[in-house]
Give the backbone structure.
Amino acid sequence: MTGPNVAGVTKNECICASDEEPEQSQLVEDHEAHVLVAEWRLHKFQSPIELKHDDSIHHDHFEPLEFHGHWDKGGKAFLKNTGKTAVLRFESRELPVLVGGPLHEDTYVFEQLHFHWSADDTSGCEHIFEGRAYSMEAHAVHYNTKYADFDEAHDKPDGLAVVGFFLEATDNEDNPCFNKLTNAVKKIVEIGSMTCVPTDCLTWIKEEAQCKGYYTYQGSLTTEPYTESVTWILYPTPIHVSREQVAYFRNMKSNEKTTIVNNVRPLQTPPEHKKLNIIYARSHRKSE
Ligand SMILES: [Zn+2]
């Protein structure tokens, strides 16, 4: 998986890509299976999963999902190399919020947006749609404002809403809207480094976010602590970017020597008797 020029992250070093039991998780007894398992494995609604249109429940008259403020200017935006991914956060501005759709009466405020990718352009997404993988997956993480902050919300069943977007690398030209972020990615090669980004750096999700159809289900975080607190909202049509734009992410370092080659969690399979309800939600009204 690693070429001579890329000091690869091995499977054990990259917790996002590892399907092994995370060391930090406590071992507890699974009463159904009578074995000791890591605490998070007791739960049954782990993400990511494969989405299939024909297996989902179709709802044609969902309330529209509304994005407020995600592509506004003002305040400050920063992109940081955490050693596992690139994370975008806003500061000194009213934070974007998400309402409507599957979120009932609650308001979810933007916490951060981050990316998943892998060693090649055909396997960098976490969710699989109709058997197909894409080059990257972006996750816009929001928490429910009925909780004080992300930390308080992250383990509550209605705590988080994560909007996922697929990115597909093509031989075509750069996606000009995505360049605001990739220009910043070039500056955060070192772990822990951070740089400013134009505050309207999320315009590349705008078109997809205004689409009338998306998939939604109740699942989990795909990184530690894997809590089942996420209302997932996934748009099926990939956003096109160039291969070069994706490649910049692979230059980011996970420590002094190695780069972040793969931060994708493998597909999770729910037990037979715990079938996940995946809803294909459509609204006939356009969101903001
Ligand atoms: Zn993620």
Observations:
- The domain at 43-282 is CATH 3.10.200.10 (Carbonic Anhydrase II).
